[in-house]
Amino acid sequence: MAEDTKGDTNLYTGDPQEVSLHKGLANHGATCYMNSLLQSMFMTKEFRKALYEWKFDDTVQNKEDSIPYQLQKIFARLQLVDDAATTTDLIKSFGWDQNASFEQNDISEFCRVLFEALNTTFEGTPQASLLDNLYNGIYSDTLHCTACGYDSNKEVNFNDISLTIKDDFSNSFNDSLEKALGHYLGTEKLEGDNQYFCSRCDKKVDATKGFKLVKLPKILCLNFKRFTLDYTTFQRVKINDKVTFPLLLNMNPFLREYSSEEVEKLIEDNPLSKVRPSDLRLGKFVRDDEDDKDGQEISNDTSKRYNQFMENELKNLEDRGEMQVEGQTTISRHKEKEQTDKQHQAYLKKMKKNIKKRGGRFNRKNLNSNFFANSKKKPNEAKGWAFDFSIQESAHLVEKPKNAVCLPGEEEKLVEERKKQADEKAQNPQEEQPNESKETKEDTKENEKEEKKIDRKSKDEWADIVTQKNLELADEYKKEGDFVYELFAILIHSGGAHAGHYYTYIKDFETGDWYKFNDVMVHKISFLEIITTFGQKPSKKRRYSSSIQARSNAYMLMYRQIDPDTNVNSVPKSLISQELKDEVEADLKKEKKQLEEKERKDNQMQLKVAFNGDSRVFWVNRKEDTLQSLLVQAVTEFGLEDLGIENCRLRAFNVVNDVMQETYTGKEQETFEVLHIFPLKTLGLETKTAEEEFQEIDPNKITLKVNAWRRNISILDDDNLMPQKIIVNKEETMEDLMNKISTEYNIAFDKLRISKRRAGSVGKNVEELSIEKNIKRKLKILRINDGLTIFIEDKSFEHPDIDKYPFLSKEIAANKWETEFELNRNRSVIKFNIPSESIDQDVDNDSKDKKDPSIEYGKSVVVDKRLTVFDLKVEVSKQLGIGLDKLIFRRGIHGTEIKENDLTLKQASIYNGMCLYIRTGIPSCENEKRLKFFLSEPISEKEKEDMDIATSDSLYYKMRELIEIPVNTHQTTYKVKEFACQKIKESCDIELDPTQIRFRERANDRLTKYYRDEVVIEQYRMYEGKQIAIQSLPAQEVIDQDDIIIMIRSWNPETWQITPMKELVVKRYSTLDEFSHILAKEYPDIQRENMECCKIMSYFFRVQLPYEKWYGLANQEDFLASNPFYLSTDGLLLFVKDKTLVERELTEEEKKEYGCQEYENAIFVTSSKGKRGVFKEKAMKINVKKKKKDPFADALIGMEDSKEDLGPLKAHSTGSTTGLEREFSSTKDTFCSTASSSGSKFLSDVKVQGESENPESPTTEKIEDS
């Protein structure tokens, strides 16, 4: 099945590789997690074979709802079709919408949910136990009471085992799969604060808790817990630490329960795997057959070739950035020991001494620090054959570098060779190396090619050696039991805790080759790639790695039990049913048709055709339609049928310069793709009479647009200037052009001035072309190109309106077009509205306009921005016919008033196109600001009766708008009071005494800062439209600098009643104890010693009072302006209560009345401010829909004679089928046990619901599992 053909260079190994016939799966947004799992299931031949044997039953499900059927289609397509497959139909069978393809999920979570859905579909079929036979295992959750000896055993089914990598609480780290399994099965002592409550002992006692594997599945899925919660930052993080795993896994020792001590001993003394991918990197093969001489010869013969091969392989991996070699001789072994090993230190000391004695140089960095870490025997006493030195060291031994470190007994030989080389060099000091010839270089290249071929052959050789070694180890492990597993799938997660990507490495059991499945890309890889999936070696400097290289590591492993009787290594195509093949073929035809339709739509493009200042849009196919077909459409669209299509043609058209360009003569039948005509291009339609002939384009002919000066030019664009076109030859001189223009426009040659626009915004606006030195120069030398716009004028007189613009210089005024462009550059068009004619409706008009902001700015005035604001107002006043003393100018309806009459429009930031809102009224002077005054009044109890309780509780004052007037803010507050009272009397007929009122700052329905009479009101930060509330007092009052105005209310926790608001004037530096005496007078029913107080911030609801911070007042020496209340400004609200009263629990009705829901909403809005990117995770669900026969339908069989007696039974049977939908979701116990392709998903409980498939049936069933 997995035949290979020669292909391109492999992107993953850098060598010319064979391209795999295994095909990928399309990623529909964020479905890489799904693709990785489906490819692993497809390459599980046992599952694929059993799935093909499943027969679809249309009486149970529809095809589009059947998950197994859609899986069959995907698997059949992967096996039959030489193209990537799509999972669109499978996603639809899950009951997911289009957005689900872009949701990021965890692969282990998806595996569990998919298996549950498949088990439900397989119910009642021969495949009912398919998944259980392959993936289901059983473990026993054991608990032993050390006091009474009671044992509790609970068996639990599992499809995968989640293994811990790092646990900060127990300070444990598992750097290998065996350690993780051992600690998973180890026992835990429940003692101390973590004692177990024994029902028999009726008390907490010491106990031991653990897990025991009872049954192992044929396909063992192991999941690493690489996602956890960092308790220092409370953020989800990914653990990228290195975790090694074997190619061959012996699970026999794990089929019993271990204590924690036994786990450590098991891992330390009895390593479970003897051949690991890391051993392949190091060339470490150990055979215990001490007497096998042939084996020794094999080792010596293959050592050099293996080391050379492995060195090249590592170099390829390092160049691709997939492996980081730490130092030059770092070696990774299964068991590491510290460098303090006595035997190792003694050897280092001896070697250092010998090398220095012979004049050598000792380099500790190049020495393998773990040389004797795994063996207590000396190298010459090792059993069998072995080469336990690193690749780098073997390379050093071959090349014999200066600082090489050799095995014991080799250093003397190395020193002698160095002395010999030094003597030869001393005898021939003048000898030079000959230059390398061309033939030598070519020979070197050929040798390199041959070496690469040898390396590729060596790769296959060593793959065979590994396979043979695995077979030997499998036989050895089989002596312990049947549970020996071979690694065949590595599901890899690349990325972080919140974003990432899944891909997988899978072994094809038919060929023994490994492949990388990355969505649609599938490539054959070397088995050495497995090393790159271990993860990064943990570092003390950083807890969690962030580099892309370090974040790609194994997340889930799949092992298959080695059993020749049940293992399936190939699945023939004959197992695929003919119906399934026909379905795949139909899908391919459908996809081909859709692809053709998509290509047709992609080839559709818009083109514009311009004719006589008009343009139309046409849709054409760039690969099929021709220029002639578009011409036919254009002639019909512009109504030129009478002219005849032979008198029309399409040309390229320059939209900017409005000129025709190249022709397409002889290319009318070419497609737009051939003509390189791209979307949105504009073509020009050219016409002629029957007697005329179309002229081919002359490269020397250019079209110029000529603008002749005239008076009253307001806007300088082509629509207003209406330029005329003339055709000239660019080989002509400026003199020829001037003669032509002089004749056509009747301007004397010596009085003609020709100019063009000058680029840039600094300096002059136009550049004169008709100067003396240009007269004899050709137009192309003067850069007069096709489409250029030129400006002509009679220079014998100045601009007639020059007196209106005294700020223009004489040099500019002498050139009329320069004057026009200078004025245009500074010209501003200001729009304004027509104000109300009635001056008496000043306030009413303003409030009405604010409610309806759709003001029509139908008037406009054109002014120079170098004029003053006063000049603008004069022009507007003339147009409106209203005096300046009766108009108020504002920057928009809600903007500030414009009062700076002496500033220029530019200085006053009045720009071109600005809209001024004008209303009738008295304008304010430059030192004045327009302020709004409101009369604040307390809310009466009668008014509160018409409101709900929650609304009346939160209201402070009601505000009545009085007047808006300009105020000189450089006066004292008292002077402003007098002025405001006078204006209020005149406008509102309300008489107020300035000595018996307060000025307060308004904040909605609250009153805040108090304005003191002696302070200049500008110090309170006055601005246009500021709102000031007026409080009417019964008598004159005096408030000192240290006084503040606060609001006070009382609350009874037993009755939940609150009193109306009171205003108090207190000293901000009063103590809390002094404040309690003041409150005791206001609320005599509360004893001063029992008084507690709280401060309310912003919004207020009665239900929030129990959650506020209450502070006692009596005998407290803190100031009001300090902790805990910080009363530093006016208008704050305080509540007082009796602390001896017990709070009563509210009824549901009271919670609703007091605004409980509104308070929770306000809390949510406040707490969520500034928090972005926080999303609620939801459970993954797969909906399994089944048809269900109506239970009443069978009752109708044979009852034809008594239909009239059926009554409601007959009526119910009108719908023959209903839908049975089961929603599966998985559950999780921890915050971050798994992660998705861009982050983890939380899972909820399993939900089961029914949904009617009959659109006419109103019934919906809810069916629960028993």
UniProtKB/TrEMBL annotation:
Residues 1230-1241 have a biased composition (Polar residues). Keywords: Coiled coil, Hydrolase, Protease, Thiol protease, Ubl conjugation pathway. Residues 23-562 form the USP domain. GO terms for cellular component: cytosol; nucleus. It catalyses: Thiol-dependent hydrolysis of ester, thioester, amide, peptide and isopeptide bonds formed by the C-terminal Gly of ubiquitin (a 76-residue protein attached to proteins as an intracellular targeting signal). Its EC number is 3.4.19.12. InterPro entries: Papain-like_cys_pep_sf, Peptidase_C19, Peptidase_C19_UCH, USP, USP47_C, USP_CS. Residues 578-608 form a coiled coil. PROSITE patterns: USP_1, USP_2, USP_3. GO terms for biological process: protein deubiquitination; proteolysis. GO terms for molecular function: cysteine-type deubiquitinase activity. It comes from the Eukaryota. Residues 414-426, 435-459 have a biased composition (Basic and acidic residues). Residues 414-459, 1205-1224, 1230-1266 are annotated as: Disordered. Signal peptide: none annotated. This is Ubiquitin carboxyl-terminal hydrolase 47.
